[in-house]
Amino acid sequence: MSTRSQLRPARLVAAVGILVVGLVVAVGFAQPKPAAATSGLEELVGAISPTVLAQLPADPRLYGAYTLRPTPDRCRNGSFSCIDKTVASMAARFDGLAPRCDHDAVFSLLYLRVTEHYEVLAATPGWFVSPRTVNWEDAVFYDLYAGAYADWHADRPAAVPPAWRLAFAAADARQVSGAGDALLGMTAHILRDLPFGLWRISMGDHRDHLAINTMLREVYSSVVAEIARRFDPTMAAGDVVPGTGTLIVDAIAQWREKAWRDGMALVEAPDQATYTAVAQRIEREAWETSLAIYLASRYPLQQATVVRDSYCAIHWNS
Q1: pLDDT digits (tens, 9 = 90+) for 11-24
Q2: At residue 298, what are phi and psi to the nearest 5 degrees?
Q3: How close are the terminal C-alpha atoms of the chain, in Å?
């Protein structure tokens, strides 16, 4: 990927923000949430304007205080059987979501197909420099998502990172497009989870990090086509981050490189106070990008989701 084709994450958020202003004006305002109800979230992510609060899901789980989520540690030996367990867990979740046309099914399918492709490549000699280390990373990375998903749906939001809260609340409320659901999952998982996963495995080899970018490019178009066929036909045009001219595959590579730098900052933190400060910055920045994407992909009228859900009811198993 050429340097010229890349945008820094801050520029990407700014570009999405331009569209957000127009969207806010177009859809009008609901009553903002009371300040007391949002103070827990705002202690971490900063003050949220009443205009933006009026656009966010009404789900009270989005707004409470957050305690930094512990990073799990599974599959230290990098066994290939760990990938089998991860794929089985992913498939079970997706099989429960798809028949209900649950909006969480979009990211669930995306993640499942990517991991199935990864399982093939992990066993391919020479594809990764250190396949067992990448297998360890894959297990930790998945458990970060799976744990947040389980806590959200078990009504334990205090353990759910803000970026994931927004992704799950938007899916529960059916408030964003299929592309929005996919991107909210990707931003939370890459910008928030990946630095902590890399910290857990002590970073691994950067060549393997780049090889995963190549893998993601290989599989992305086919997964988007499947999501469009089964869940939301508008995904067929979902190759650009809403509100920007940036291809999603390019944005993913940019986010992953930022995650690498953030993971390194966690590893190099000289003491607990510095680590906590870096961790909180990661949470805030993941939230900021997710918020911009949410506002840019939010349905202008809630009724717009009916078209998508009616389509899914017929095609989800096609």
Answers
A1: 443 334 333 333 33
A2: -70, 135
A3: 34
